[in-house]
């Protein structure tokens, strides 16, 4: 097959980027202008991630993502994808995000449909512009808690309100979760768990914790504190952790942005008390979704190299990896 990924068929014309009218409303224009001028990189990453999901709509159904992303991020990522396609790139921009999104979706669904998972609470740490509470029907029995900085959650609520009040049916937000609670908190402060509990989180109730695109923005000590707090919950109740980890080489791509890394999260999590730890890499059978067919693309090449290897034997570039981890624990279970 061609070097291009299968969802971008070469014989199809590349569609123009069509922006939803709602993005040109006064409210959303002003809000996104404010995000661009006032937010730091970490907060803006919420919108950037949403843009990636919006532009991978062939595989990720997230109609709200383009509203959350805003015009600038959509245009930037659109141009990158277009260039990759024209160059027949082996990896199209954003494929890693599409795979990551689909991996988390599938693991959340599996956790909630397991015999003891139905009705579990779901907590998203660093929820950003995640729209799962509006797009996953498997959350219908779950109370969902979204934790992020106050300004991120406030912007999100403003966008949802604008969408709800518009005549644009395609973007009407409908909550598919049993309930949705936004918890404004800073994960580097000691009070985030208290704030979560004050908002209705029940420590003794089965919980699925979602840490998607968040750990590497934290310092080593803050990330470890967050992981330990979640691990302690395994002594109280059935606990599932879904998280992505960068290895050290991945954080060197931008050492001012990324901090926490772990080369062996499949050893770290059992040491904290989790059992049933499973590590996947982008391109593995459960982290593939038909998007990484080419055996010579970067992700497949990485998977074929031992994880101890730090630089590519071909060109000496860093072997940056994104690990996808699922782990669980319960009072009756011992860590492996
Ligand atoms: C890359 S985005 C990922 C958002 C979302 N999980 C997703 O996958 O779409 C990272 C998010 O983490 C949030 N974040 C980073 N550091 C945080 C902290 N100390 N406390 C709360 N949220 C934080 C940012 O505001 C941003 O929304």
What does this structure look like?
It is a single chain. The chain has helices at 26-38, 41-55, 65-69, 71-86, 95-113, 132-135, 150-164, 192-198, 220-232, 248-251, 265-272, 298-303; strands at residues 121-125, 143-148, 179-184, 207-211, 239-246, 275-281, 322-329. The protein starts with 25 loop residues before the first helix and ends in a 7-residue tail after the last strand. Strand 4, helix 9 (220-232) and strand 5 form a beta-alpha-beta unit. A 7-stranded mixed β-sheet has the order 3-2-1-4-5-7-6, sandwiched between helices. It has 336 residues and is of the alpha/beta class. Residues 1-6 have low confidence and may be disordered. 37% of the residues lie in helices and 13% in strands. The chain is built from 12 helices and 7 strands. Bound molecules: S-adenosylmethionine.
